[in-house]
Amino acid sequence: MKTLKALLIVSLMSASVAALAEGGGDRVVAQMDAARDVSMAHYQQAEHKEAVATAQAAASHDVERSN
Known about the structure:
Number of helices: 2
Shape: rod-shaped
Largest sheet: none
Distance between the termini: 89 Å
Structural class: mainly alpha
Strand content: under 5%
Number of strands: 0
């Protein structure tokens, strides 16, 4: 039983090391960076739309008050 556990531990550790050694970690980091860039672009577009809508609402309120 001890031999089986030791063999299992060694095989699991070597599999994870092999995945990282082949650039798996680099690919994961690159995917995270790409996802962050896309989400920041969407966030900036949403903020811009909100700022434009707020400015238009403020301008319409100013026009209503002056009449």
